Amino acid sequence: MSVLFPSMNNMHFNQCNRIITSLVTVLCTLLSTVYGRPNLLPSFDTPQVNVTVIENKDAMLPCSVNHLGELTVLWQGPQGEVLTLNDRRVIDTHRFSIVRPYLRDWNLHIDEVKLSDQGSYTCSIGPQPVLAKVVNLHVKVPAEIVSNRSSPTFQKVKEGDTVILTCNVTGQPTPKVNWYRRGAKESDDKKEKATGDEETAALFPLWKEVVGLDGEVMIIHNISRYCDDVYECQAYNGVASSVSRLMRVVVEFPPEVRLPNPRIGQSVGKDTILECIITAEPIVTIYWMYRNTEIQRSTRYDVEAYDEGPKTVILTVRIFDLTKEDFGEYTCVAKNKLGMVKKSMTVFEYIDTKEVDSTTATPHYTIKGKEPENTATEVEVMKPSNDDPEATSFTRTSTNGYSNPKNERPGVIGSVSDKGQKGQASTVSTTIPLLCLTTMLTALLQ
Protein backbone atom coordinates (compact mmCIF):
# COMPACT_ATOMS: atom_id res chain seq x y z
CA MET A 1 0.00 0.00 0.00
CA SER A 2 1.40 3.35 -1.01
CA VAL A 3 0.22 6.95 -0.27
CA LEU A 4 1.38 9.82 -2.55
CA PHE A 5 2.14 13.38 -1.39
CA PRO A 6 2.73 15.63 -4.46
CA SER A 7 4.15 18.63 -2.55
CA MET A 8 7.11 16.73 -1.10
CA ASN A 9 10.38 16.09 -2.78
CA ASN A 10 11.33 12.58 -3.75
CA MET A 11 13.41 11.80 -0.66
CA HIS A 12 10.75 12.82 1.79
CA PHE A 13 8.16 11.08 -0.31
CA ASN A 14 9.94 7.71 -0.14
CA GLN A 15 10.44 7.93 3.60
CA CYS A 16 6.83 8.78 4.26
CA ASN A 17 5.66 6.01 1.97
CA ARG A 18 7.70 3.41 3.85
CA ILE A 19 6.39 4.62 7.19
CA ILE A 20 2.77 4.55 6.12
CA THR A 21 3.15 1.08 4.59
CA SER A 22 4.60 -0.26 7.83
CA LEU A 23 1.77 1.25 9.85
CA VAL A 24 -0.86 -0.29 7.62
CA THR A 25 0.81 -3.72 7.87
CA VAL A 26 0.89 -3.52 11.67
CA LEU A 27 -2.75 -2.44 11.73
CA CYS A 28 -3.82 -5.38 9.56
CA THR A 29 -1.93 -7.78 11.80
CA LEU A 30 -3.64 -6.39 14.89
CA LEU A 31 -7.06 -6.60 13.29
CA SER A 32 -6.39 -10.21 12.22
CA THR A 33 -5.36 -11.11 15.75
CA VAL A 34 -8.43 -9.53 17.30
CA TYR A 35 -11.10 -10.60 14.87
CA GLY A 36 -9.59 -13.88 13.46
CA ARG A 37 -8.71 -14.97 9.94
CA PRO A 38 -11.10 -14.66 7.00
CA ASN A 39 -13.64 -17.56 6.80
CA LEU A 40 -12.14 -19.92 4.08
CA LEU A 41 -14.31 -22.89 2.95
CA PRO A 42 -12.85 -26.46 3.08
CA SER A 43 -12.17 -28.28 -0.20
CA PHE A 44 -10.73 -31.53 -1.61
CA ASP A 45 -7.67 -31.69 -3.78
CA THR A 46 -9.53 -33.85 -6.36
CA PRO A 47 -13.26 -34.54 -6.65
CA GLN A 48 -13.08 -38.25 -7.63
CA VAL A 49 -10.38 -40.92 -7.84
CA ASN A 50 -10.20 -44.47 -9.25
CA VAL A 51 -7.90 -46.96 -7.51
CA THR A 52 -7.11 -50.42 -8.91
CA VAL A 53 -5.42 -53.14 -6.86
CA ILE A 54 -4.81 -56.88 -7.15
CA GLU A 55 -6.49 -59.12 -4.62
CA ASN A 56 -4.48 -59.76 -1.43
CA LYS A 57 -2.44 -56.61 -2.01
CA ASP A 58 -2.75 -53.41 0.08
CA ALA A 59 -4.76 -50.42 -1.18
CA MET A 60 -4.45 -46.70 -0.36
CA LEU A 61 -7.55 -44.53 -0.95
CA PRO A 62 -6.45 -40.86 -1.01
CA CYS A 63 -8.36 -37.97 0.60
CA SER A 64 -6.67 -34.58 1.13
CA VAL A 65 -8.66 -31.67 2.61
CA ASN A 66 -7.79 -27.98 2.41
CA HIS A 67 -8.96 -25.56 5.16
CA LEU A 68 -10.58 -28.26 7.28
CA GLY A 69 -10.68 -26.11 10.42
CA GLU A 70 -12.75 -27.66 13.17
CA LEU A 71 -14.73 -29.89 10.79
CA THR A 72 -14.79 -33.71 10.86
CA VAL A 73 -13.54 -36.21 8.23
CA LEU A 74 -15.65 -39.35 7.79
CA TRP A 75 -14.99 -42.46 5.62
CA GLN A 76 -17.89 -44.67 4.49
CA GLY A 77 -17.79 -48.03 2.71
CA PRO A 78 -19.64 -49.21 -0.46
CA GLN A 79 -22.72 -50.13 1.61
CA GLY A 80 -22.78 -46.80 3.45
CA GLU A 81 -21.23 -48.22 6.62
CA VAL A 82 -19.03 -45.84 8.67
CA LEU A 83 -15.41 -46.96 8.63
CA THR A 84 -13.50 -44.14 10.34
CA LEU A 85 -14.18 -40.84 12.12
CA ASN A 86 -11.25 -38.46 11.79
CA ASP A 87 -8.29 -40.72 12.60
CA ARG A 88 -10.26 -43.24 14.70
CA ARG A 89 -11.38 -46.62 13.26
CA VAL A 90 -15.07 -47.33 13.82
CA ILE A 91 -15.52 -50.64 11.98
CA ASP A 92 -14.55 -53.80 13.83
CA THR A 93 -11.70 -54.93 11.60
CA HIS A 94 -8.01 -54.19 11.68
CA ARG A 95 -7.70 -54.12 7.89
CA PHE A 96 -8.90 -50.48 7.75
CA SER A 97 -6.89 -47.54 9.11
CA ILE A 98 -6.17 -43.82 8.51
CA VAL A 99 -2.76 -42.82 7.20
CA ARG A 100 -1.68 -39.13 7.42
CA PRO A 101 1.70 -38.44 5.79
CA TYR A 102 0.75 -34.70 5.87
CA LEU A 103 -1.65 -32.71 8.06
CA ARG A 104 -4.20 -32.29 5.29
CA ASP A 105 -4.17 -36.03 4.36
CA TRP A 106 -6.85 -38.43 5.58
CA ASN A 107 -6.04 -41.49 3.45
CA LEU A 108 -7.86 -44.78 4.01
CA HIS A 109 -5.52 -47.80 4.04
CA ILE A 110 -6.91 -51.33 3.44
CA ASP A 111 -4.75 -54.38 4.17
CA GLU A 112 -4.96 -57.51 1.97
CA VAL A 113 -7.78 -56.34 -0.24
CA LYS A 114 -10.53 -58.84 -1.01
CA LEU A 115 -12.84 -58.96 -3.99
CA SER A 116 -15.70 -58.13 -1.62
CA ASP A 117 -13.97 -54.81 -0.81
CA GLN A 118 -14.59 -53.57 -4.35
CA GLY A 119 -16.92 -50.58 -4.67
CA SER A 120 -17.25 -46.81 -4.14
CA TYR A 121 -15.87 -45.32 -0.92
CA THR A 122 -16.82 -41.82 0.30
CA CYS A 123 -14.62 -39.33 2.13
CA SER A 124 -16.95 -36.73 3.76
CA ILE A 125 -16.45 -33.41 5.57
CA GLY A 126 -19.06 -32.44 8.12
CA PRO A 127 -21.20 -31.98 9.96
CA GLN A 128 -22.90 -29.15 7.99
CA PRO A 129 -22.80 -28.55 5.08
CA VAL A 130 -21.49 -31.98 4.01
CA LEU A 131 -18.85 -32.21 1.30
CA ALA A 132 -17.99 -35.62 -0.18
CA LYS A 133 -15.33 -37.14 -2.37
CA VAL A 134 -15.82 -40.54 -4.05
CA VAL A 135 -12.97 -43.05 -4.45
CA ASN A 136 -13.79 -46.05 -6.66
CA LEU A 137 -11.89 -49.19 -5.66
CA HIS A 138 -11.45 -51.82 -8.41
CA VAL A 139 -10.13 -55.22 -7.36
CA LYS A 140 -8.50 -57.54 -9.90
CA VAL A 141 -8.33 -61.26 -9.21
CA PRO A 142 -5.86 -63.57 -11.02
CA ALA A 143 -7.33 -66.44 -13.01
CA GLU A 144 -7.85 -69.62 -11.03
CA ILE A 145 -9.14 -73.09 -11.96
CA VAL A 146 -11.59 -74.65 -9.51
CA SER A 147 -10.51 -78.29 -9.30
CA ASN A 148 -13.62 -79.76 -7.70
CA ARG A 149 -15.77 -78.23 -10.45
CA SER A 150 -13.55 -79.32 -13.34
CA SER A 151 -13.04 -82.63 -15.16
CA PRO A 152 -10.72 -85.15 -13.49
CA THR A 153 -7.06 -85.23 -14.45
CA PHE A 154 -7.41 -88.86 -15.62
CA GLN A 155 -10.35 -90.64 -17.17
CA LYS A 156 -11.05 -93.68 -19.37
CA VAL A 157 -13.68 -93.66 -22.10
CA LYS A 158 -14.80 -96.12 -24.76
CA GLU A 159 -14.27 -95.51 -28.44
CA GLY A 160 -17.39 -93.87 -29.88
CA ASP A 161 -18.39 -92.09 -26.65
CA THR A 162 -19.05 -88.36 -26.38
CA VAL A 163 -16.51 -86.80 -24.01
CA ILE A 164 -17.13 -83.50 -22.21
CA LEU A 165 -14.11 -81.76 -20.69
CA THR A 166 -14.82 -78.94 -18.22
CA CYS A 167 -12.48 -76.28 -16.85
CA ASN A 168 -14.26 -74.11 -14.27
CA VAL A 169 -12.41 -70.81 -13.78
CA THR A 170 -12.75 -67.71 -11.63
CA GLY A 171 -11.10 -64.30 -11.82
CA GLN A 172 -11.67 -60.58 -12.28
CA PRO A 173 -11.90 -59.68 -15.10
CA THR A 174 -13.38 -62.92 -16.43
CA PRO A 175 -10.54 -65.12 -17.74
CA LYS A 176 -10.32 -66.40 -21.29
CA VAL A 177 -10.01 -70.20 -21.53
CA ASN A 178 -8.10 -71.90 -24.37
CA TRP A 179 -7.81 -75.65 -25.04
CA TYR A 180 -4.71 -77.50 -26.20
CA ARG A 181 -3.76 -81.05 -27.08
CA ARG A 182 -0.26 -81.93 -26.01
CA GLY A 183 2.04 -84.94 -26.03
CA ALA A 184 5.50 -86.33 -26.65
CA LYS A 185 5.47 -86.32 -30.43
CA GLU A 186 7.67 -84.60 -32.97
CA SER A 187 6.80 -80.94 -33.38
CA ASP A 188 5.93 -79.32 -36.69
CA ASP A 189 4.99 -75.84 -37.92
CA LYS A 190 1.56 -75.97 -36.26
CA LYS A 191 2.89 -77.11 -32.88
CA GLU A 192 4.74 -74.96 -30.37
CA LYS A 193 6.98 -75.99 -27.56
CA ALA A 194 5.02 -76.87 -24.45
CA THR A 195 5.69 -74.99 -21.25
CA GLY A 196 4.76 -75.69 -17.67
CA ASP A 197 6.11 -77.07 -14.44
CA GLU A 198 8.99 -79.54 -14.34
CA GLU A 199 6.78 -82.56 -13.71
CA THR A 200 4.54 -81.70 -16.64
CA ALA A 201 7.51 -80.99 -18.89
CA ALA A 202 8.98 -84.38 -18.04
CA LEU A 203 5.78 -86.19 -19.00
CA PHE A 204 4.79 -84.21 -22.07
CA PRO A 205 7.80 -82.15 -23.13
CA LEU A 206 7.57 -81.57 -26.84
CA TRP A 207 4.49 -79.90 -28.26
CA LYS A 208 0.97 -78.62 -27.88
CA GLU A 209 -1.61 -77.61 -30.47
CA VAL A 210 -4.81 -75.59 -30.23
CA VAL A 211 -8.02 -77.64 -30.30
CA GLY A 212 -11.69 -76.80 -29.89
CA LEU A 213 -13.21 -73.40 -29.22
CA ASP A 214 -12.53 -70.91 -26.44
CA GLY A 215 -14.61 -71.46 -23.32
CA GLU A 216 -14.84 -73.50 -20.15
CA VAL A 217 -16.24 -76.61 -21.90
CA MET A 218 -14.84 -78.70 -24.78
CA ILE A 219 -16.89 -81.54 -26.31
CA ILE A 220 -15.41 -84.41 -28.35
CA HIS A 221 -18.13 -86.24 -30.27
CA ASN A 222 -17.69 -89.91 -31.25
CA ILE A 223 -14.19 -90.07 -29.81
CA SER A 224 -11.75 -92.41 -31.54
CA ARG A 225 -8.53 -94.07 -30.48
CA TYR A 226 -6.65 -91.35 -32.33
CA CYS A 227 -8.01 -88.78 -29.84
CA ASP A 228 -6.30 -90.58 -26.97
CA ASP A 229 -3.96 -87.96 -25.50
CA VAL A 230 -3.42 -85.28 -22.86
CA TYR A 231 -5.62 -82.18 -23.04
CA GLU A 232 -4.89 -78.86 -21.35
CA CYS A 233 -7.17 -75.97 -20.45
CA GLN A 234 -5.38 -72.66 -19.95
CA ALA A 235 -6.97 -69.60 -18.29
CA TYR A 236 -5.64 -66.04 -18.49
CA ASN A 237 -7.06 -62.60 -17.68
CA GLY A 238 -3.98 -60.38 -17.78
CA VAL A 239 -3.67 -59.99 -14.02
CA ALA A 240 -0.98 -62.59 -13.39
CA SER A 241 0.54 -65.59 -15.15
CA SER A 242 -1.82 -68.01 -16.85
CA VAL A 243 -2.94 -71.15 -15.03
CA SER A 244 -3.60 -74.53 -16.62
CA ARG A 245 -4.94 -78.00 -15.89
CA LEU A 246 -3.94 -81.26 -17.62
CA MET A 247 -6.53 -83.94 -18.35
CA ARG A 248 -5.43 -87.39 -19.55
CA VAL A 249 -8.05 -89.09 -21.72
CA VAL A 250 -7.53 -92.82 -22.40
CA VAL A 251 -9.68 -94.26 -25.21
CA GLU A 252 -10.34 -97.99 -24.83
CA PHE A 253 -11.09 -100.19 -27.86
CA PRO A 254 -11.17 -103.93 -28.68
CA PRO A 255 -8.08 -105.68 -30.05
CA GLU A 256 -7.01 -105.69 -33.68
CA VAL A 257 -4.63 -108.34 -35.06
CA ARG A 258 -2.52 -108.11 -38.20
CA LEU A 259 -0.36 -110.86 -39.70
CA PRO A 260 2.48 -109.53 -41.87
CA ASN A 261 2.92 -112.99 -43.51
CA PRO A 262 -0.24 -115.13 -43.67
CA ARG A 263 1.81 -118.01 -45.19
CA ILE A 264 5.39 -119.04 -44.47
CA GLY A 265 7.33 -121.88 -46.10
CA GLN A 266 10.30 -123.55 -44.43
CA SER A 267 12.30 -126.72 -44.81
CA VAL A 268 12.31 -129.58 -42.34
CA GLY A 269 15.04 -129.27 -39.73
CA LYS A 270 15.27 -125.49 -39.86
CA ASP A 271 13.89 -122.75 -37.56
CA THR A 272 11.13 -120.30 -38.42
CA ILE A 273 9.63 -117.22 -36.75
CA LEU A 274 5.93 -116.32 -36.76
CA GLU A 275 4.95 -112.68 -36.17
CA CYS A 276 1.68 -111.12 -35.05
CA ILE A 277 1.01 -107.37 -34.56
CA ILE A 278 -1.63 -106.52 -31.94
CA THR A 279 -3.22 -103.12 -31.30
CA ALA A 280 -5.62 -102.67 -28.36
CA GLU A 281 -6.41 -100.64 -25.23
CA PRO A 282 -5.95 -102.16 -22.80
CA ILE A 283 -3.73 -105.03 -23.98
CA VAL A 284 -4.53 -107.78 -21.47
CA THR A 285 -4.07 -111.26 -22.95
CA ILE A 286 -2.10 -112.28 -26.06
CA TYR A 287 -0.84 -115.74 -27.07
CA TRP A 288 -0.24 -118.20 -29.94
CA MET A 289 -2.19 -121.42 -30.47
CA TYR A 290 -1.42 -124.55 -32.49
CA ARG A 291 -3.95 -127.35 -32.84
CA ASN A 292 -6.20 -125.72 -30.20
CA THR A 293 -3.38 -125.64 -27.63
CA GLU A 294 -1.67 -122.51 -26.32
CA ILE A 295 2.01 -122.39 -27.18
CA GLN A 296 4.22 -122.06 -24.11
CA ARG A 297 7.92 -121.23 -24.02
CA SER A 298 9.96 -124.43 -24.06
CA THR A 299 12.87 -126.11 -25.82
CA ARG A 300 10.67 -126.29 -28.92
CA TYR A 301 9.25 -122.76 -28.81
CA ASP A 302 10.49 -119.29 -27.86
CA VAL A 303 7.66 -116.79 -27.34
CA GLU A 304 8.49 -113.05 -27.12
CA ALA A 305 6.51 -109.78 -26.97
CA TYR A 306 7.89 -106.38 -28.03
CA ASP A 307 6.45 -102.88 -27.65
CA GLU A 308 6.03 -101.41 -31.11
CA GLY A 309 4.48 -98.12 -30.02
CA PRO A 310 1.51 -96.74 -28.09
CA LYS A 311 -1.01 -99.54 -27.63
CA THR A 312 0.83 -101.83 -30.11
CA VAL A 313 2.68 -105.07 -29.34
CA ILE A 314 4.47 -107.53 -31.62
CA LEU A 315 4.06 -111.14 -30.48
CA THR A 316 6.48 -113.66 -31.99
CA VAL A 317 7.04 -117.39 -31.67
CA ARG A 318 10.23 -119.09 -32.84
CA ILE A 319 9.90 -122.76 -33.73
CA PHE A 320 13.14 -124.73 -33.48
CA ASP A 321 14.12 -127.66 -35.72
CA LEU A 322 10.92 -128.00 -37.76
CA THR A 323 9.43 -131.45 -38.24
CA LYS A 324 6.56 -132.69 -40.37
CA GLU A 325 4.30 -132.33 -37.33
CA ASP A 326 4.99 -128.59 -37.13
CA PHE A 327 3.44 -127.78 -40.50
CA GLY A 328 -0.11 -126.48 -40.26
CA GLU A 329 -2.20 -123.57 -39.02
CA TYR A 330 -1.09 -121.28 -36.17
CA THR A 331 -3.48 -118.82 -34.51
CA CYS A 332 -2.69 -115.47 -32.85
CA VAL A 333 -5.18 -114.58 -30.10
CA ALA A 334 -5.71 -111.19 -28.41
CA LYS A 335 -8.46 -110.22 -25.99
CA ASN A 336 -9.46 -107.57 -23.46
CA LYS A 337 -12.66 -106.57 -21.68
CA LEU A 338 -14.08 -105.14 -24.91
CA GLY A 339 -13.63 -108.21 -27.09
CA MET A 340 -11.47 -110.98 -28.52
CA VAL A 341 -10.00 -111.50 -31.99
CA LYS A 342 -8.15 -114.39 -33.66
CA LYS A 343 -6.18 -114.61 -36.87
CA SER A 344 -4.52 -117.68 -38.34
CA MET A 345 -1.53 -118.24 -40.59
CA THR A 346 -0.10 -121.32 -42.30
CA VAL A 347 3.35 -122.85 -42.07
CA PHE A 348 3.99 -125.21 -45.00
CA GLU A 349 6.94 -127.34 -46.05
CA TYR A 350 9.32 -125.73 -48.46
CA ILE A 351 11.30 -127.98 -50.82
CA ASP A 352 14.60 -126.62 -52.10
CA THR A 353 14.64 -126.47 -55.93
CA LYS A 354 18.30 -127.51 -56.07
CA GLU A 355 17.47 -130.82 -54.47
CA VAL A 356 14.62 -131.37 -56.93
CA ASP A 357 16.89 -130.64 -59.91
CA SER A 358 19.47 -133.21 -58.78
CA THR A 359 16.88 -135.97 -58.33
CA THR A 360 15.17 -135.36 -61.67
CA ALA A 361 18.21 -134.98 -63.95
CA THR A 362 17.83 -136.51 -67.44
CA PRO A 363 20.27 -139.42 -68.18
CA HIS A 364 22.83 -138.99 -70.98
CA TYR A 365 22.89 -141.60 -73.74
CA THR A 366 25.55 -142.19 -76.45
CA ILE A 367 24.15 -143.92 -79.56
CA LYS A 368 26.40 -145.18 -82.30
CA GLY A 369 25.67 -144.70 -85.96
CA LYS A 370 23.01 -141.94 -85.76
CA GLU A 371 22.65 -138.60 -84.13
CA PRO A 372 19.47 -138.48 -82.09
CA GLU A 373 17.12 -135.59 -82.25
CA ASN A 374 17.21 -132.96 -79.60
CA THR A 375 14.88 -133.32 -76.67
CA ALA A 376 13.75 -131.02 -73.92
CA THR A 377 12.80 -131.50 -70.30
CA GLU A 378 10.69 -129.19 -68.15
CA VAL A 379 10.43 -129.62 -64.40
CA GLU A 380 7.69 -128.22 -62.15
CA VAL A 381 8.42 -128.04 -58.43
CA MET A 382 5.83 -127.47 -55.68
CA LYS A 383 3.46 -125.49 -57.81
CA PRO A 384 0.71 -124.27 -55.46
CA SER A 385 -2.98 -124.06 -56.24
CA ASN A 386 -4.28 -121.06 -58.21
CA ASP A 387 -6.09 -119.66 -55.17
CA ASP A 388 -2.86 -119.19 -53.21
CA PRO A 389 -0.92 -116.37 -54.88
CA GLU A 390 1.33 -115.84 -51.86
CA ALA A 391 3.23 -119.16 -52.20
CA THR A 392 6.21 -119.27 -54.52
CA SER A 393 6.51 -121.67 -57.51
CA PHE A 394 9.72 -122.69 -59.18
CA THR A 395 9.90 -123.81 -62.86
CA ARG A 396 13.00 -124.96 -64.63
CA THR A 397 13.40 -125.91 -68.29
CA SER A 398 16.51 -127.74 -69.51
CA THR A 399 17.67 -129.76 -72.54
CA ASN A 400 19.17 -133.19 -72.34
CA GLY A 401 22.73 -134.05 -73.04
CA TYR A 402 22.46 -134.93 -76.73
CA SER A 403 24.77 -133.12 -79.12
CA ASN A 404 23.33 -130.59 -81.52
CA PRO A 405 25.86 -129.68 -84.19
CA LYS A 406 23.54 -127.20 -85.82
CA ASN A 407 23.10 -125.38 -82.51
CA GLU A 408 19.35 -125.32 -83.02
CA ARG A 409 16.65 -125.07 -80.34
CA PRO A 410 15.00 -128.37 -79.42
CA GLY A 411 12.16 -129.32 -81.68
CA VAL A 412 9.83 -130.59 -78.97
CA ILE A 413 9.26 -128.87 -75.63
CA GLY A 414 7.52 -130.59 -72.72
CA SER A 415 4.61 -128.60 -71.22
CA VAL A 416 4.12 -127.92 -67.51
CA SER A 417 1.02 -129.37 -65.95
CA ASP A 418 -1.09 -126.79 -64.09
CA LYS A 419 -3.28 -129.33 -62.37
CA GLY A 420 -1.10 -129.78 -59.31
CA GLN A 421 -2.79 -129.01 -55.98
CA LYS A 422 -1.35 -127.74 -52.76
CA GLY A 423 0.40 -130.50 -50.86
CA GLN A 424 0.81 -132.87 -53.85
CA ALA A 425 4.17 -134.18 -55.00
CA SER A 426 6.11 -132.56 -57.81
CA THR A 427 5.62 -133.80 -61.39
CA VAL A 428 8.24 -134.21 -64.07
CA SER A 429 7.25 -134.60 -67.72
CA THR A 430 9.70 -135.53 -70.49
CA THR A 431 8.77 -135.66 -74.18
CA ILE A 432 11.04 -137.70 -76.54
CA PRO A 433 10.41 -138.23 -80.29
CA LEU A 434 9.21 -141.76 -81.16
CA LEU A 435 12.02 -142.38 -83.68
CA CYS A 436 14.64 -141.44 -81.10
CA LEU A 437 13.07 -143.75 -78.51
CA THR A 438 13.07 -146.71 -80.92
CA THR A 439 16.73 -146.15 -81.77
CA MET A 440 17.64 -146.01 -78.11
CA LEU A 441 15.89 -149.30 -77.32
CA THR A 442 17.60 -151.02 -80.26
CA ALA A 443 20.99 -149.85 -79.08
CA LEU A 444 20.37 -151.14 -75.59
CA LEU A 445 19.34 -154.59 -76.81
CA GLN A 446 22.52 -155.04 -78.83
CATH superfamily of the largest domain: Immunoglobulins
| Count of the domains | 5
CATH 2nd-level architecture of the largest domain = Sandwich
Radius of gyration: 52 Å
Structural class: mainly beta
Strand coverage percent: 35-45%
Distance between the termini: 175 Å
Average residue pLDDT: 77
The geometry reads as rod-shaped
Question: How does this structure look, described?
Answer:
The protein has 446 residues and is mainly beta. It folds into 5 domains: 38 residues; 100 residues, Immunoglobulin-like, CATH 2.60.40.10; 99 residues, Sandwich (Immunoglobulin-like); 91 residues, Immunoglobulin-like, CATH 2.60.40; 93 residues, no CATH class. Helices cover 11% and strands 41% of the residues. It has 4 helices and 30 strands. The strands form 7 sheets. Strands 12, 15, 16, 18, 19, 21, 24 and 25 form an 8-stranded mixed beta sheet that branches. Strands 2, 5, 6, 7, 10, 11 and 14 form a 7-stranded mixed beta sheet that branches. Strand 22 and strand 23 form a beta hairpin. The protein is rod-shaped and about 150 Å long. InterPro entries: Ig-like_dom, Ig-like_dom_sf, Ig-like_fold, Ig_I-set, Ig_sub, Ig_sub2, Neural/epithelial_adhesion. This is Protein amalgam isoform X1. Pfam families: I-set, Ig_3.
